[in-house]
Amino acid sequence: MEPQTAAGKVLWHFAMSLDGFVAGPNHTMDWMTGATFRPGLVEEYAGTTGAVLGGRAGWDAYPDPGGIYGGAWQGPVFVLTHHPEDAHPTPGVTFLNCDVAEAVRIALDAAGGKNVEVFSPTIGRQLLERGLIDEIDLHIVPVLLGDGIRLFDNPGGAPVRLELLLGGDPKAAVDVRYRPVPAE
Description:
Low-confidence stretches: none
InterPro entries: DHFR-like_dom_sf, RibDG_C, Riboflavin_Biosynth_HTPR
Distance between the termini: 34 Å
Order of helices and strands: EEHEHEEHEHEE
Strand content: 15-25%
Number of strands: 8
Pfam family, one: RibD_C
Protein name: Deaminase
Mean pLDDT: 93
Radius of gyration: 17 Å
Domain Bacterial bifunctional deaminase-reductase C-terminal: 76-163
């Protein structure tokens, strides 16, 4: 895969379980313990990200902007919420109560030509519906959670077709093969 570039894109970016969850119940992330990623991945995204846009539920579960990319990234964080007045003030974090399109515009302005990373399934879905997501970047972790917060949850909605950016056939399915690990 080509390395990510800082090009003022809106990225919906997550590590995801094989069954489509980006967080466990109550936003737990312990399921990622022991997962490995390609060398340089964190540095790549930390270097191309200019701002982060997230939702209130995720922020309330992890209210520390210093934890983004293990502390390798620092920059403006925007949290979209219907109740900014009860949010705990945090340096570098702006709580917004506006339309998602306005929130992404604010984040893009603050990103200074780098990318905005969307760390919210709900906000990402709303931006996707409005044509405001440039890319969806997923890192599939070899685990089946069975419960939690899905990347894309849109019951009754129409399928959203995507184009693969790995080169070759843009409509190709991605092949993965795993085997269950015996319980210890």
